[in-house]
Amino acid sequence: MSEKIGIGRAHSKIILMGEHSVIYGFPAIALPLKDIEVVCRIKKAKKKLQFDFYDTLSTAIYAALDYLQIKEKPISYEIVSQVPQKRGMGSSAAVSIAAIRAVFSYFEEDLSDELLEILVNKAEIIAHTNPSGLDAKTCLSDYAIKFIRNIGFETLAIDLNAYLVIADTGIHGHTREAVNKVAKYEESNLPYLTLLGNLTDKVEKAITLKDKVSIGFYMNEAHQALKAIGVSVNKANQLVDLAVANGALGAKMSGGGLGGCIIALVDNEEKAKMISKKLIEEGAVNTWIQKL
């Protein structure tokens, strides 16, 4: 008889627009990256798990077992993830979703989308103290998500016939440090944060008009504003400049900054592959291409 295995999957995400300004009440737009996946497998084990509440995966499994009231059940888990950690790609939320789905799959329990989101956010709160919920929402969604703090989420349909190239700088992002840095000089940063908020609104309008040229232009503007508030790094700036020089409609850093990823909007797949190759040659440690 074959061994029983519970399997759970989840996908990644990336911020298109609204980094940092989202903290000050402006909107942010995040995109699901459906081809970049995490898979969790749960199997029977000889002894019960020891939980580490500094570890998102452990916390997510605890949240699922606690809900099912079976914390004593001996299981083991393994994760296979294509999502790099600390790059603004929703690694911890994706891992939590995959793990909770795998636990429910293993114990053959029903898991509604609502319950899954509650359990993921519970795990994220333990691991990250005060998450916005945007990562979890986008990693659970097949659609882009617009988020405004204290107001909530709405889905956006994106059909641009364009491609997003995502490039990993290889440098861990430092979101908390970046957020504190922006807050420290809030008064002088406010004009840039307002600009970032306005650019996000403009991108949302351009998405409905399928105006990818304008979206690219606003992405370039956003990158300059993020540079001005001190959250970009030289490696990200180099990759952004390279993408634009090689025909991207626009490019910017993505996420909290001080490392992490850059994104570039490109109008066809062939060009996206060429830019992707150039970014690797320039020192990006990995790239992905997502159709928009």
Descriptive account of the structure:
There is one protein chain. With 292 residues, the chain is an alpha+beta fold. It contains 9 helices and 9 strands. The strands form 2 sheets. Strands 1, 2, 3, 4 and 5 form a 5-stranded antiparallel beta sheet that branches. α1 packs parallel to α2, α1 packs across α3 and α6 packs antiparallel against α7. The longest helix is centred in the C-terminal third of the chain and has 23 residues. The chain is globular and about 55 Å long. The N and C termini lie far apart (44 Å). The mean pLDDT is 89.
Care to give the gist of this entry?
With 292 residues, the protein is of the alpha+beta class. The protein contains 9 helices and 9 strands.
